[in-house]
From TrEMBL, chain B:
<dbReference type="GO" id="GO:0016887">
    <property type="term" value="F:ATP hydrolysis activity"/>
</dbReference>
<comment type="similarity">
    <text>Belongs to the ABC transporter superfamily.</text>
</comment>
<keyword id="KW-0547">Nucleotide-binding</keyword>
<dbReference type="InterPro" id="IPR005286">
    <property type="entry name" value="Cell_div_FtsE"/>
</dbReference>
<dbReference type="InterPro" id="IPR027417">
    <property type="entry name" value="P-loop_NTPase"/>
</dbReference>
<keyword id="KW-0131">Cell cycle</keyword>
<comment type="subunit">
    <text>Homodimer. Forms a membrane-associated complex with FtsX.</text>
</comment>
<comment type="function">
    <text>Part of the ABC transporter FtsEX involved in cellular division. Important for assembly or stability of the septal ring.</text>
</comment>
<dbReference type="GO" id="GO:0005886">
    <property type="term" value="C:plasma membrane"/>
</dbReference>
<protein>
    <recommendedName>
        <fullName>Cell division ATP-binding protein FtsE</fullName>
    </recommendedName>
</protein>
<keyword id="KW-1003">Cell membrane</keyword>
<dbReference type="Pfam" id="PF00005">
    <property type="entry name" value="ABC_tran"/>
</dbReference>
<dbReference type="InterPro" id="IPR017871">
    <property type="entry name" value="ABC_transporter-like_CS"/>
</dbReference>
<dbReference type="GO" id="GO:0022857">
    <property type="term" value="F:transmembrane transporter activity"/>
</dbReference>
<dbReference type="GO" id="GO:0005524">
    <property type="term" value="F:ATP binding"/>
</dbReference>
<dbReference type="InterPro" id="IPR015854">
    <property type="entry name" value="ABC_transpr_LolD-like"/>
</dbReference>
<feature type="domain" description="ABC transporter">
    <location>
        <begin position="2"/>
        <end position="221"/>
    </location>
</feature>
Amino acid sequence: MLQTIGYFIRRVGRNLRQTPVLCSAAIGTVAVALMIIAFFGIVVINVQQVARQWSREIQVVAYFDRVPDAGKLQGWKASLKNLEEVQQVHFVSREEAFKRFQKRLGDDADLLEGVERDFLPASLEIVLHEERRNKAGVEAVVARLRQIGELQDISYEPEWLERFDAFVGLLRVGGFVFGGFLLFAALFIVSNTIKLTLYARREEIEIMTLVGGTPLFIKMPFLLEGALQGLAGGLLALIGAWALFSLMLREGLHGVLVVAGVDGILFLSATQQAILAAGGLALGLVGSLLSLRKFVRI
Amino acid sequence: MIQLYNVCMSYQKDASALTDFSLKVPKGDFLYLTGSSGAGKSTLLKLLYGAEKPSRGQILVNGMNITRMRSWRIPLLRRKIGIVFQDFKLISTRTLFENVAFPLEVQGKKRYEISNKVYQALKHVGLQGKLNRLPLQLSGGEQQRAAIARALVTDPLILLADEPTGNLDDDVANDIMELFKGANARGTTVVFATHDREMIRRFPRRIVVLDKGRLVEDHTP
C-alpha cells in the first residue's frame, strides 16, 4: 500500500516536472476562474451587509390610546416575547418619547417649549430576530398586536417591507444563478485544460492500459495531479483576490457602501477562504475525473 | 492456451472484420497470423487482449472466457500477455529503463525487484548499456528490442506481436525474430501477425492465413 502511494507521489512529481507549461496553464485557469468567483463573492458579501444594515430598521411600533397599567403591559410584553419572530420588546413611555423627539430636534429643541411633555403617545417597540426581518415575520407580529384592543396605531411600513423582501430575494436568486454559472464555466474551462494535459500524455495512458493497469491505478496519479493543481490555483486565486480587493475594491466599494449606511467593507472570512481553496482542489479533482472518463478506456 | 469458437466481429453493420472464425493455439505454440492488409489480423489480436469484444462466438485465453469477462478483470488478463506493436508504443518522455519498468510498476512489484528484472530484460535484448536513453535516441531496431523487453519482463504466458518487423530492415528483423524464437523456446506461446512472406520462409512455423476476416489456411510446415 505504502509502496503504491509512494509510486503515485513519484509519478505526480515527475509529471509536473515534465509538463511545466501545461501544468502552469491548468493552475492559472483554476486561479482565474476562482478569482472571478471570489470577486463576485466579495461583492455579494458586502451587498448582504447592506441588506443586513437595512434590516435593522425593520421593527414594529405599536402606539397606545392610553398608557396601560403595569400589569397589562407586562402581560402583553411577555405574550409578544413568546413569539419566535420577536427578539426584543421595549416599552417607550410618553416621557421617553418626548425626550427622544427633543434630542432628534437638536438645536431646534426650543420649538417644544410650552408643549406638554405627554403629548406623544406611549408605544411598544418590537425588534425582530435578524432572520425574521421580512414581510412574513412582521405580519405575524402585527397579527398578534391586533389582538390587543387598546392600540391606537401600528406602524410597520408594508410597502417598504415588500421592496426589501424583493431585494433580498433577487440578491439570493442572482447569487445562486450567477455563482452557479461561474462555477459551471470554471469547471468546463478547467476540465478542458486538464484534457489538454491528458492529451499530451495519451500514449502513456494507452500503454498503461495495454500492460494491465487498472483504471484506478491509471487515474489516481492524474487525479492527485488535478487536485494539487486545483489547490495551487485556489491559493493563487486567494492571493489575487486579496490584491484586487486591496488595490481596487476597497476604495471603490467603500464609497458606495458608506452611502448605504455600512461602516466598512469586508473581505472573505477565514471559512470562506478555506472553502475557496478547497473549491480549487475539488475543481481540479472533478475536472480531472470528467476528462479521464474519455481517455481511460480499458 | 488460446481457443476461438465461431467468432464474428464487425465494426460496422455491413462490414465484417472476422467471420465465423475458429482456432486453437496450444500452450508453447508459435503461430504466424498472415494475410493481406485488412484481412483481420489486428482485429484478432485486439480480441485476444480484450481491447475489442466479439459480436458473436467465444474466446478462451488461458482457460478464461474473455467474451464474458467483466471489464475490471481485463487488466488482470493483460498482465499475462505481452504485446509488441509495429510502432513500438514506447513512451517518448521516459528512458528505456522506465519504459520497461512500466508493466512491473503497474503490477505493484517492489522497487529492487523491478530494477533487477528490468536490467535482466534489457540485457537479454542487448540494450543494458542504453538504459538511460530516451526512445527517440535509439534506432528503430533498438526501439523494437526495448518494446520486446517490456513485453517479456513480466514473463507472460502469451506474446502477441502485431507486425513487429514491419518497419525494420531484414538484418534487424532477423535479430528481432531471434528474440521471439527465444521467448517461445522458454515456453511462451507466440502469436505473430505479419504479411512478410520472406520472414515466414526464413523461420518456418505454423501459419494461419486470413482473408477478408475468414480463416482460409492453417498448416504447419
